[in-house]
Each structure stands twice: as C-alpha cells, then as structure tokens.
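Supplementary Methods S3. Complex input for the D-ribose-bound model.
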Amino acid sequence: MIAIASDHGGFHYKEKVKALLLQMKLECKDFGTHSPEPVDYPDFAHAASEAVSSGLCDQGIFICGSGIGVSIVANKHKGVRAAACESVTAAELSRKHNNANVLCFGERLVGWGVAEEMITVFLNTNFEAGRHTRRVEKIHSLTGR
Ligand code: RB5
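Predicted complex, serialized as structure tokens:
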C-alpha cells in the first residue's frame, strides 16, 4: 500500500500519481488534500508519514510546491526515510543507497515526465544493502527515530 499526500501546491500531481498507480495496479491510500484550495502541507504529510511509520503503508509519495516541506515533515517520523528528488538518478540512488521509503518532489520544480519516471524508478529499484545497511541503520539508532 502506497501513501500519497500533497498540499495545494502538489494537488494536481497527486491526482496524476493516483491515476499512474492505478494503471500500475498498485494500491494507494490518499491522505489529501482533496482540492486546490490553499492548505498547510504539514497536516497532510504528517498523516501520511504516520501511515508509513506504523507500517500501514509500505511506501509513500508526497508532493508539495518544492518537495521540501513534505520531506522535512516526513523525516521527523520514526522509521521514515524520505528523499526530496528532482532527478531520476536521485530517486534511484535514494532506493539503492538510502533505502528511502518515501519519495518527495515539487510540482513547481519538476516536469510531469521526470516525476513519472522518478516514481517508476523509485518503485522498481531495490536497496543494495551491503555497506549501506550499516549506514541506514545508524540513521535510526543515532537519532532514535
Ligand atoms: C506552498 O505555497 C508551498 O510553500 C509548499 O507547497 C511547499 O513548497 C513547501 O515546502
């Protein structure tokens, strides 16, 4: 189950992500927002991050204007490793090296073609483990989150 969330700045992309995941036959849970009316991104990113942190959802795709606000919120949650990405390479590395479980990006910064490719790569790339395992474990052991 993939948690999706956005504020007004990412609302149109969130709707497109929903359609894309449906096309990929992947289930998602939409934590809002549900219209382009201005809202506060922490409200939506927090609810969706809780779902990833608790294990209700395995992964998340969060969108705001820049991708930055939602990623800051997400990374405050235990067990969440959110990557704010603007390139396909970054999305791929976030999986291979960081075992990221939330992909964040900005509707105002990234074209839909790149966003679509980032999502595909993010969902289809495995963690490389090996030397990266110890580093990823330290993220949580050192911060307690
Ligand atoms: C909303 O205008 C904008 O600040 C928000 O979408 C996001 O980019 C914050 O990081």
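The first helix runs from residue 11 to 23. The longest strand covers residues 59-64.
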